[in-house]
Amino acid sequence: MLSKFNKLLIVSILIASSLLLLNQDKTFAAQRIGNGLYIKNNVTVMVNGERVTFNDPILNKNGQLFLPMRDFYEIIGATVYWNQKTKTASAERNGNRVDVTLNSRTAKLNGETVTVNVPPFLYKYKTYVPIRFLSEKLGGTVKWNQQAQRVDITVGNEVPSPSPEPVPTPIKDPYYLHINDKRIAMADPIITKGGRSYIPAEYFYENLENSSGKWLTKDQFELQISGLIFVFTNGSSTIKVNDESVATDEQPFTRSGKMYVPVKFIVNAVGDGGNLRYLSKQKEMYIYLYQYMFTSKFLEKSYGSTKVPQNTPNAELSGNRTLLVSDNPETLTAKVIPNSTATLSEQIVKSSESVNEHRVFGWHYNTLGKNIALGITVENTSQTTSLQVAKSQGVFKRSGHSWINYDIGLPIADHVLNDKLQQAESEGITIAPGETKVIQMYTLSNSYIIGFLHDLDIQAVNGGESSYTIRTVLAKNNEDLSTIHSEVVPINPYAAHPRGVWPSSTIVSEFPTYTIGDAEAGYSISNGKTDHFLTAESSLEQRNGALGNSGHFGINYIVNIPVANPSGQPQKVRLKLSGRGGLYSGAIKVNGQVHLIPTLKPGKEYIELPSYTINGTNEVITIEVMHAGGSNLPMAIYIETE
């Protein structure tokens, strides 16, 4: 009989190898369960000739397979430890120790930091750990039987030492492909024929969830993307999509043993559509597939003018989550950042509250001529009191071109209103007196822009007064971000980009009561006048300058619209939104549903929300808005009776 360790080692290696084989032939049965998760069925696992089964499902996420932590560790006969505060699972066996943390891409192997491509996660109250990550460290031999859908694993009694990972050879002057938020240095060229762009199919199935590719014949290639099955034939303009033949103007072709597929055709075919931009001079292609990029759906544009709105008459800050904005200097130049490190913004906190809630919103453009690191840090300035980061979650996006409201601002707004901020590995950490720790680190390539939003809650470990400084910092040469305590750099007073700290990250506005049957009424928010609470003068930090945030970037803006319905009979009202200061986009939540607002031209385009039924004599319609970074404000909201 096999030892428990050998059984799971083989299983893990089997699953890892099956993952690799998915790229060649992805015929495993799979059941989609949401959030990018699939249950993998019909896979037989043989360990040294014995079949191994599991009580819980094998899950697939981002092309990686997972098993419940407890099942995995018990099968390999490891001693298991669970740290609830840091949400870290540790396993020890034969002198080896592996530590993985929930929702963290950073793990420890015998004390050394390693990277997990897809972090552990919770499913049905169980922590799932990545099989591929662990199996690659343990080694073994695996054979895959495609016809039988079986993996045969053989392992010895000893755990082999992990072999060093190969160092990739840099590609000289590569083409760059951006798929949603991934940036890939291509080993192949982008080829344009007949005004249409083609890339090898592998760049789709290797970089998109729930995708695969395989050769059917020497001239036919099958590409699966999220339920769609494309069959491309070398030199043929007929493409099969889910077994239906589609006549096109594109002609897939083979080159160097790879099937080059028409990018625009695929982008248009995938559910919810997408967008394609190819900058041939820069040798960069941007592919956006909406169903991968956004949680919410876009509202349809309507065309026509809208009336001039009034400024909202009633608005106020709400809540205790402070807002630190790091957006000035936005453009990072050698003149602005002369040293190898810098502090871009800071918030000094002294508080006796049990929990202090913070939001950090950042937006920076790297023109320093090299790749850099940015980060959010917290320095505990107390001499006696330790701090705990009770909450740490956020979202960030990067872009290499000027469509920043779409690439960066809109996805961030979508994540925030859908409560989809990702838990950071800093959640649960303790910061000792005098210690500085990194809350979140970002890498930023030269000539790229980054936007980030991060919420964190900080508390004193044993109560009492908290004393600390939150910073956004920069390092040019891989310096330790936690060592950067320099004075904050001066703002650029001639650039209309905000920097400062304000006492709240939520604004609540109430419009005057609208009565059913009245003419259309419209009110402007983020108008720079009646709701401009985030001024330079009101900033809680003034060192080396502050600049107001009249556009309310990083703010949740809640609007209450009272409606009077004298008849008491059900009546429908219509809500419209339009930009008033320039191109506008954002996200809006109404009735618990989040919608995306496409880029709107002021005075020419607007969007309509789904009809809203007023059932009583008096109701309040509540909507929540987050403006996309890079948009122009103000924005107007209109209401009328249908």
UniProtKB/TrEMBL annotation:
<dbReference type="InterPro" id="IPR012854">
    <property type="entry name" value="Cu_amine_oxidase-like_N"/>
</dbReference>
<feature type="domain" description="Copper amine oxidase-like N-terminal">
    <location>
        <begin position="179"/>
        <end position="271"/>
    </location>
</feature>
<keyword id="KW-0732">Signal</keyword>
<dbReference type="Pfam" id="PF07833">
    <property type="entry name" value="Cu_amine_oxidN1"/>
</dbReference>
<dbReference type="InterPro" id="IPR036582">
    <property type="entry name" value="Mao_N_sf"/>
</dbReference>
<protein>
    <submittedName>
        <fullName>Copper amine oxidase N-terminal domain-containing protein</fullName>
    </submittedName>
</protein>
<feature type="signal peptide">
    <location>
        <begin position="1"/>
        <end position="23"/>
    </location>
</feature>
<feature type="domain" description="Copper amine oxidase-like N-terminal">
    <location>
        <begin position="47"/>
        <end position="152"/>
    </location>
</feature>
